[in-house]
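The record is passed on directly below:
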Amino acid sequence: MLVALDKIFAEDPSPYVLLKRDLTMIWANTAYLRATGRTREDIIGKCMTDVFPADPDSIPDQMLRGSFRRVIELGRPDHLPLIPYPITSGDGRKEDRFWSATNTPIKDADGQVEFILQNTNDITALYREDGVGAQPSDQARMIRRAEAVTRENLELGSAIDFFRSAFDQAPSFMVVLEGRDHVFRIVNQAYLQLVGRRDLVHRTVREALPELDGQGFFELLDDVFLTGRAFTRRAAPVLLRNGAEMDRRYVDFIMCPLRGPDGDVRGVFVEGHDVTGQKLAEAEVIETRERFRLMAQTMPNHVWTARTDGRLDWINDRLRDYCGLPAEDLVGAAPMSILRPEDRERAQEAWSNSLTQGVPFEQEVRIRRHDGADRWHLSRALPIRDDQGHILRWIGTNTDIEDRKLAEEAIAGLNATLEERVEQRNRELEELSNTLRQSQKMEAIGNLAGGIAHDFNNLLQTITGSVQLALRSLDEGHAARPRLDQALSAVGRGATLASQLLAFGRRQPLAPRVINLGRLLRDADHIVRSAVGEGIEVETIVAGGLWNTCVDPANVETALLNLAINARDAMDGRGHLTIEIGNSWLDDAYTKGIQDLAPGQYVMLAVTDTGCGMAPDIIERVFEPFFTTKAEGRGTGLGMSMVYGFVKQSGGHIKIYSEVGNGTSIKIYLPRSLEAEDAARPPAIGPMTGGDETILLVEDDEQVRLTAAGLLHDLGYAVLQARDADRALTIVESGARIDLLFTDVVMPGQLNSRQLAEKARMLRPGLPVLFTSGYTQNSIVHGGRLDSGVHLLSKPYTQEALARKIREVLSTGGSPSAPPAPARHVLVCEDDVIIRMNLAETLAEAGYRVTQAGAGGAALLQIRQEAPDMLLVDLGLPDMSGLELARTARTIRPDLPILFATGDSQIPDLEFRPHADVLIKPFGDEAMLECVARLLAGEVISR
């Protein structure tokens, strides 16, 4: 650009200089240097007012700076016909000179002023020229007249600037509107701050503030303009746009007509104050008062307030109902008027002292009830003070302490029976000690049973595999086949015995799923009837609305069959057997003293017979292993111990009710599950099949390993063998082909089976793993249940069971360890800051990612932008109701889980089901976290 200026103006006889916005000179032509007596080095890169200084408040300085300011602000050229501006000559003398200057803006691509090109001419000689006869020439007079006008304009501009500054800095908002269309002419900063810093000047009100349409302000302006009458309003609500949202503000304002010289209305002047803070403060005071009254009405205690003279001015419903008097009879009375006459003088003296001294009041008094009875209360009152410490009123409560008084009176009587109570407590401790010893004995037997079962099942597995392989090598008519079949049958009985030992010891690996016991009983009904025989009349009763429970279905069927067979034997094959299933609640009183039983909701399975019954000493031993009342050879004595172990391992409880000669009722309580019922899994069908895959077999017992390898070879599989986890891992690391890892659970060595599986999957992502064991310990079973996603084949197993399980695992495939899931995102929308912060802190401590919103609009913006996993919302919000927010949120995210948290118990939330629930305030953290977890887990809410 400077090159272009040189080409155009370099030799122009008129002086030109180019300045930046900050008045830095970056170019000048030869004429400018000649007129100012400066060189290029004297001025380039320097500020004009530094090179050519003038007094800061002088007329020349004001005129020059004012011209530059107008060029920058308006983007138009500005002409100074005459500007006196002193300049220092080359010899250092300062002389007054007169100039004519034109400042022209040069704009950038965006239309903003980037540079100012000044053309200035020295007219000092012309200004000082005298005409003939000592009279100035016409041109000189014209220049002097221009000087006078310039000075007047400068003074007028200063006055206008002062007016604009005062107008702009006024604490109230002010606007000048012109014409019938109400065009903005002057707007101060307070108004811009109110409406949001918009471009208003030269635009009509309807164009600049379209959101006012329908709020009545346009009509008020029209009325003031047409009638010429002013209009005033206090605390007027107005909705103004703030970005994407609408803000509610409250304003005091006056609209006055502006008249011209002819008296006609030319415009409207609007002045007022933003009183939103005051209005919100008033609303907060009202809300605080109402909140106190609501809280006081919901409290179980008497609540009252009194004036500074000690007279009641408000009572809650509890106190009114207690006294049986209308509120108007109590308001204005002394608080002590409702006391028993014997207590009034003492309490009134203490109350008067509190009123005089301003100290808290506290007395134990008897208050007369509406039926004439007196009850002891602790009456307390505290003074409420203003900022200066003056008492405004008193707030009091009456707390019923009748029970405490009675307890104090009973202490002497209780002391007299102390010895008897100590003896009773000793008996209770003795019973607890016996229970603990019995539990420890059962635990020890269980540990022994588990250890025996492990070795026993390994022996049975060797026998099973060897016999099955031998059978496959013999013809159908071979003489040895019946003996081998008998051996297999014996192995089956031995496996049942081992399973019963594990069940009693609570060591069996359960595979629980959510089931409905009513459906299970329906499916097993024919088995039960077949087992008890035709001489037993079987009645089944299933309660309506039966809850689900999470248990191992096979073990439930086995337990039910055991109980039914025992009942059959007790009735000698003839009688009435009732099987009942229903919902049950075990409270604190029932569960007290029962080890490992928590109060709560349970599903009850009861089996009741009309048999001979049992004596108390028999009931005490019925769950002991190998104990039986049956004849020799008719039972192992493990049936009831197996039922006991299964129930305890499932987190349940079993109870026997029996009398000799009056039958027996055995009730099993299994914990309720809130999850939906699992679909039934169809049994495997079709012929036994093998495959050509390669299986890595890991087993520390050599006989078991060789037998299992033989079964696998016989099914067509290639088999790699390892006697412990360390050697197996070496095979995995070698890169050999492995399609499935088949490993025993309990093995010696540095690695256990679970660690082997994890390391193998790290090397071979997706590698299928099948565990086998006769005793699982804790590596893949926790809390008595198989870990999620674990496949287990219990020993001893048949070749058919092995074949089917391997095909099942291979078809299912392995799944490599997934990366940790990101924290679930919960959006909390609550207008009360303290409640919102408490909710957010609790959720964050529980591991959730939490964002917050204090209004519905802000919450909707987050739902659109951040897609939270769940919305926790209060019903009362400042800009919309929680229900409106929920409906709008569901249009954005139809499957969004919603948790309503509110103090209103009547919530029309059915429209948001099944993925919505309600928490009634006040609620605890545990209840809130439980609801959040259920909703995020996708649980269907139907209650």
Residues 2-166 form a domain with the Beta-Lactamase fold (CATH 3.30.450.20). The mean pLDDT is 80.
